[in-house]
């Protein structure tokens, strides 16, 4: 399938456009992190996750925990596009009285876990995976982590835990965009060699291009990589992906696009919206 | 209290398959029975309290009633943000159990003294904060937290504490339990000072002073009515607890300050000073000025004109 006609690619363009409009409207931060995981979320929500927007509490659903809760804008956009709630809610993102708070909130239909403080999602995912495993239930648990988040020690407690309990129903995706809150990962606290770290903890780990739909689809659709082991996907991404002047720029962890920047960004995305 | 807790928990787990027990690599000679009887609902998470509490949240999100168990501060302060964000924010059925509350592990040193836990837990949203005063209260409150929906904190002593209640009391979340009636003043105790409070009341009686003794195992929700009634009837209130500032004394002070009843009042608690010498629980209480003779002297001073 040519890239531009893939459902996931169309979905990604739409949710990027939503996220840009949302952070512009709210004068909010974190657009860079939203754009970097847009393609990952698009493949998850269009191809991978066994979910039913009509029944967000369906017990057999796959769970997705976005542990990097500061990427809430694009998560809400994906859930709205997937039909969990009306798309027009997005316009109220971060505004007084809106359920769509700046960090992921479980009060929003389809959001499994409220996150925002880093290092919380993976232990919770371990608990969900353990419950499913011990009861022989077939659903999977996906957890998206940021790279900066991996500085938190709580993650490494969970990284140790999951293989010990053979949680092969657990999948971690690291959005490895190489820029954390206040500097480059390499300069703040270097994570390399990241895949080797996961493997040393007895995870089955793969490195992919987090913006290549073929790569994303083929990888996400064949988890677990090895029976009896949790799966880790190190997705190499670009912070601010899709908007030339935002790509790889730390400033877009904080800045909100003005009218002109929004127009230029939307033009670059060539979104169907 | 440990024994009363685990007996009650095993009994309940027999009836209710949703009950899980997680520990942070502690529980020697206490948890083995549960682990043997319910291996699919038992987990030693390792020395990793943040992970343990996050796992508990994930299990609770999957429909379980999850107990986390460790010593003093470990299941409380090491993982406080997991309790706040994962457990309380999502209003989950996670029941946190700390053994060695207060200075029950006195000689072990300050790292093992749980003397700020009640202050911290009672201000968290959705949290029920309980500090039973004897094994009878422990058993009743272990059952009560299983029945109660949402996060609970059950702060226990160690093993082998005496039973203080002489008759079968009606112990409920949010309710004070009256152990002794008097008219000159009222003593309120939370946690492991209940026996001390009863001893002080007996010593006061020998000196012609009659005081009520209330056990207040429930810090949140708090039995506001019992506090206000005692304040109105006796005009003299003393709180005592095996805990530092911010616990029962502060909770009672908040109620009294906001009321139109202004009794004479003293909050007796441990000083906010990390221990510099070893000491048994009783020795620590004496060093901090919350032993029975100190309570007697405090109540007498409130009775002076």
The proportion of residues forming helix of chain B, as a percent range, comes to 25-40%
The stretches of 5 or more residues of chain B where confidence is low (pLDDT under 50) are none
Please tally the helical runs of chain A, counting DSSP H or I stretches of 4 or more residues. Answer: 10
H and E order of chain B: HEHEHEHEHEHEEEHEEHEHEHH
How many strands appear in the DSSP assignment of chain B? 12
Assembly category: heterodimer
Question: What is the CATH C-level name of chain A?
Answer: Alpha Beta
Rg of chain A, Cα atoms, Å: 17 Å
CATH homologous superfamily annotation of chain A = Thiamin diphosphate (ThDP)-binding fold, Pyr/PP domains
- As for the number of domains of chain A, it is 1
Distance between the termini of chain B: 40 Å
CATH superfamily of the largest domain in chain B, please? Answer: Thiamin diphosphate (ThDP)-binding fold, Pyr/PP domains
The 3D shape of chain A can be described as globular
Helix percent of chain A reads 25-40%
Assign the structural class of chain B, choosing from mainly alpha, mainly beta, alpha/beta, alpha+beta, or little secondary structure.
alpha/beta
Widest β-sheet, arrangement of strands of chain A: 1-2-3-7-6
Q: Would you identify the CATH architecture of the largest domain in chain B? A: 3-Layer(aba) Sandwich
User: What is the string of SSEs of chain A from the N terminus onward?
Assistant: HHHEHHEHEEEHHEHEH
Largest pleated sheet of chain B:
7 strands, mixed
What value does the average pLDDT of chain B take?
97
* Alpha-carbon distance between the two ends of chain A: 22 Å
